[in-house]
C-alpha cells in the first residue's frame, strides 16, 4: 500500500483565488436566477429560525423517488462526511483509495482513528477487491467518491452495488459531481451498506452557501439525527436550494455549458502535449509535458502568471498530474493562452 503523504490533508479552500483560477469545481454560470431571487426574498426573514427544511426534504424525496426518512440535510457535503465519521468511526479506521478527496483523512485524525489506503489500478480505476479485503473488524466505512476526485473516473453503479453486497462495512459514497453523469447509487441506498452524499455546490452553483444532503436507509438517518444538533443549515441556503432544485432547466443548461468547456479545454491541452485522462465528472486530470518535470514545478511556474490548478502531487502516484476545473470560456481561453506561452508558442 502507498504510504499516506503528509500533504494528503490539504484542503482546496486554503488559497487565495488566482486571476486565472481553474482549481475549484464551481458552476461558472453561477446559481439559478430563481435561487438568487429566493435569497433576496429570504433576507427579510433573517431574524427567524430556519423552517423550510421539511419542504426541501419533501422536494428531494420526490426528485429522487425515495422516502423523506432517507434524507439528512447538512451544511455542505464536507460537513455530512464529517458527521458520518464522527457518529460511526470514532477510534476506528476507514478505507480509501490512494487518490481521493482528502477531507475524510483529515477528519479521522481528529477522531483517534486511522486510514488504510488502497492503491488505484494503473488506469486509475478502483481496486474493488482490494478495498473489500483491506477491511478489518475495526473498519467503519469504505469511503469513495463517484466520480472519483481528483481523477474524474466513474465506477459503474452495478459494480459498487455488488461491492456493497459482499462488503463487511458500509460504503460511504460522495456523489458531489454525480449530476454530470446519468447514474447514481441513490436508488440503491435502501441497502444498509450504501450511504450517498450529494452537494448543491457544483452543478447547482451554491458553493458559497454550504448545503448538501445524504441519503441512506431510514435506520441510519434516524441514528444520525439522534446524534446531531438542530438548525444545521441556514435559512438562506435552504431557500436557495429549494429554488435551484425546482429549476431543472437551468441545471441542465449549466451542465451542458460546463461539459462543453471541459471538452474544449481537453482538446486544447492535448494539442499542447498534456496527456489527458478521460473523465466522467466536472473536472479532469492531465499529465504535464515532460519539459515541466512534475506537477510541483508546473504549479510554481503557474503562480508567476497568477494562474491556479490543483497540484495532484498531493496524492500518491499523481506527481506529474494537475486537476483542471472548467470556468467561463473567457477564463478558459486565458488559461490556454498562458499554456501556449509556457510552451513557447504565440
What would your notes on this structure say?
The chain has helices at 33-42, 53-64, 77-88, 103-109, 128-133, 157-166, 218-226, 235-246, 248-270, 295-304, 329-343, and strands spanning 20-21, 71-74, 93-97, 114-118, 139-145, 171-174, 194-199, 212-215, 275-276, 284-287, 307-308, 310-311, 321-324. The termini are far apart. It is built from eleven helices and 13 strands. It is of the alpha/beta class.
Strand tally is: 13
Helix/strand-derived category reads alpha/beta
Instruction: Tell me the number of structural domains.
Output: 2
Average pLDDT metric: 93
Q: What share of the residues lie within helices? A: 25-40%
CATH architecture of the largest domain: 3-Layer(aba) Sandwich
Terminus-to-terminus distance:
44 Å
Query: How much of the polypeptide forms β-strand, as a percent range?
Result: 5-15%
Topology order in helix (H) and strand (E) letters: EHHEHEHEHEHEEEHHHEEHEEEH
CATH homolog superfamily of the largest domain: Type I PLP-dependent aspartate aminotransferase-like (Major domain)
Amino acid at each position: 500500500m502507498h504510504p499516506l503523504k503528509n500533504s494528503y490533508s490539504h484542503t482546496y479552500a486554503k488559497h487565495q483565488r488566482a486571476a486565472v483560477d481553474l482549481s475549484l469545481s464551481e458552476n461558472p454560470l453561477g446559481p439559478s436566477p430563481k435561487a438568487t431571487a429566493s435569497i433576496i426574498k429570504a433576507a427579510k426573514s433573517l431574524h427567524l429560525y430556519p423552517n423550510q427544511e421539511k419542504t426541501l426534504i419533501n422536494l428531494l424525496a420526490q426528485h429522487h423517488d425515495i422516502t423523506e426518512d432517507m434524507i439528512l440535510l447538512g451544511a455542505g457535503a464536507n460537513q455530512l462526511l464529517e458527521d458520518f465519521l464522527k457518529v460511526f468511526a470514532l477510534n476506528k479506521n476507514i478505507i480509501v483509495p490512494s487518490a481521493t478527496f482528502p477531507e475524510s483523512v483529515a477528519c479521522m485524525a481528529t477522531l483517534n482513528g486511522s486510514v488504510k489506503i488502497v492503491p488505484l489500478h494503473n488506469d486509475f480505476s478502483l481496486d474493488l477487491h482490494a478495498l473489500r479485503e483491506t477491511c478489518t473488524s475495526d473498519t467503519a466505512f469504505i469511503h469513495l467518491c463517484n466520480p472519483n476526485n481528483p481523477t474524474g473516473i466513474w465506477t459503474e453503479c452495478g459494480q459498487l452495488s455488488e461491492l456493497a453486497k459482499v462488503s463487511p462495512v458500509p460504503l460511504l459514497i460522495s456523489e458531489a459531481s454525480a449530476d454530470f453523469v446519468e447514474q447514481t447509487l441513490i436508488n440503491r441506498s435502501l441497502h444498509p451498506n450504501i450511504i450517498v452524499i450529494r452537494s448543491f455546490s457544483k452543478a447547482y452553483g451554491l458553493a458559497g452557501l454550504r448545503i448538501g444532503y445524504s441519503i441512506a436507509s431510514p435506520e441510519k438517518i434516524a441514528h444520525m439525527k439522534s446524534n446531531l444538533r438542530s438548525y444545521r443549515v441556514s435559512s438562506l441556503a435552504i431557500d436557495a436550494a429549494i429554488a435551484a432544485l425546482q429549476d431543472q432547466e437551468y441545471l441542465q443548461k449549466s451542465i451542458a455549458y460546463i461539459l462543453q468547456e471541459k471538452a474544449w479545454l481537453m482538446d486544447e491541452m492535448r494539442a499542447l502535449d498534456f496527456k489527458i485522462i478521460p473523465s466522467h465528472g466536472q473536472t479532469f486530470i492531465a499529465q504535464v509535458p515532460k519539459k515541466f518535470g512534475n506537477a510541483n514545478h508546473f504549479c510554481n511556474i503557474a503562480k508567476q502568471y497568477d494562474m491556479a490548478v490543483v497540484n495532484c502531487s498531493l496524492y500518491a502516484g499523481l506527481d506529474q498530474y494537475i486537476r483542471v476545473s472548467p470556468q467561463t470560456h473567457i477564463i478558459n481561453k486565458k488559461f490556454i493562452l498562458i499554456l501556449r506561452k509556457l510552451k513557447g508558442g504565440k
